[in-house]
Amino acid sequence: IMRHCEKTGPLIKDADGNQHCSYVGKERAHHLATLFGTAEEIQSTSKSARWPNPSYLFALTSDRGSYWNFRQYETLHPLSNSLSPQLDVTMSDPSELPVQIFDLLQSGGMCGRFGGI
User: Fold this and answer.
1) Is the pLDDT of residue 88 over 60?
2) What is the rounded CA–CA span in Å between residue 35 and residue 50?
């Protein structure tokens, strides 16, 4: 479980009041994608992979009613693009996440797998 990208600094809100990652947050999101790899890549000294590739990535939907908050999506999108786990952004209520994770645990869908939230 990780926090979304940084939200302090200039240009985090667009003309419509929607929230985005700051420059530092976008850089961190791109760096985050370099920290994962296959078991072979983790054992190799040629790549900086430290953790196994996630099988699941979860982020709240960007729609917040009166505005859009893209920070959660923007944090995980580079990781999703580089490793191909599908980024699930269908949850609008934070209380839905534990239910979805427990369903995966109970069904065996998380056995031997890693997820990013």
Assistant:
1) yes
2) 5
